[in-house]
Every structure is written in C-alpha cells, then in structure tokens.
Amino acid sequence: MFVPARRKTDVRSASARSLVGLAPLALLLLAGCASRNDLYVLLPGQDGKIGALIVSSGGEQRVLDQPYAAASVTSPGRVEGRATSEAEVRQAFGPALAAQPTRPVSFFLYFLADTDELTPDSKRVVGQIFAEIARRPAPEIVVIGHTDRVGAVAYNDALSLKRAEKVRDDLLKLAIPKVRISVAGRGEREPLVPTADEVSEPRNRRVEISVR
Q1: pLDDT in tens, 72-88
Q2: What CA dihedral angle connects 16, 17, 21 and 23, to 10 degrees?
Q3: Domain assignments of the chain as residue spans, ordered by start
Q4: What is the pTM of this model?
C-alpha cells in the first residue's frame, strides 16, 4: 500500500522581489508595513486548496481569497487589487517558484508477520516510493520501523529496527549518502491501530519513511 501523509493547505505569496512564506508575510501585512510597489499573489496549494491573505496599508486593505488574486501597494495607504493567471505568475516568478523547497512527504511500507519481508502490495509500490525520493535534491530521510503486539516487547524492538534497517539498506542503493538517512525502531509502542496484547494487526507491521 502506498500512503502519502496528509498535507496542510499551502498558502504562499510572491512579492515583486521574492517569494516569501505566509507566516512572516502575514505579520508584516497585519502590521500595516507593506512596502511601496510590492505585488502580492495568492497561490493555490499543491492539493488545489486556497487560503486567504489580507494586504493592508494604512487604513486600506484587500482580501485575497481566489487563486492568483493579486494586490499591490502603490503608495502608503493605497492598495490596488487585480487578477492574474497561473501563466503570468510563472512568467514573472519562475525562478523563485523553482527554488522553493520540495514539500515534506511520508510513505508507509508494510511487512509480513514476524519478518522483515515486504507484503506483496508494498513490493508493488516500493519502486514508486523510491523514485519519488530519488528525484528530490539532497533529501533528508527518517526511517522508523514498527511492529504489532504479537511477541515480547524486547523482541519487537529488535524486529522493528531490523525492518527499518532493511529499508535503509535499499535506499542506499539509490546513491543517497548514509549520513542523510536516520533509522529507528519503535517496536509495538506506536500502533496505527490500537489493539490488545498478542493481537496480529497487519497495519501495525510497517516502516514509515519521512522525506524532506
């Protein structure tokens, strides 16, 4: 099974000089300190969702809540709104957009009971997962192994680490430097599906790969 982690709505703004994140930009705008001739554009997230952004200067403000809605501060106390298109944004801010870091993502791989062997479903998608990881420049990877609650705690600690190390060894074949891959085993302590002791639960026999 190939399960990407859930993603939060992504709201970003492009200025005439640079692309900046929402948090510092929002603080700047709410304080009413936008600079002259700055252009702010609301971009949809990679999942297509849209947030909202307030562009404020002096006593005048505009709310951007549509894809590629834009506003510029032409002088103190004057905010002008206008519509842009995806093509215009990419033409104006192409290099800045391309320089944005790739968003973090997580994947799950599942294992047969009491082994470090992938399930048939995970074997079918592991190539896709590794391809996604390989396309990222200088990825930082955390690999965490887990087990179900069948067996002793100490045994499951060792098994979860063995699973994580198996995935790590496969990742090293992609020519990713070992120093960029962290490995840990959590045993049965962090189940996806809580169960009683000695219950076999396939979804808990997993490795989570987090990539940023």
Answers
A1: 887 777 888 888 888 88
A2: -80
A3: 12-98, 105-211
A4: 0.60
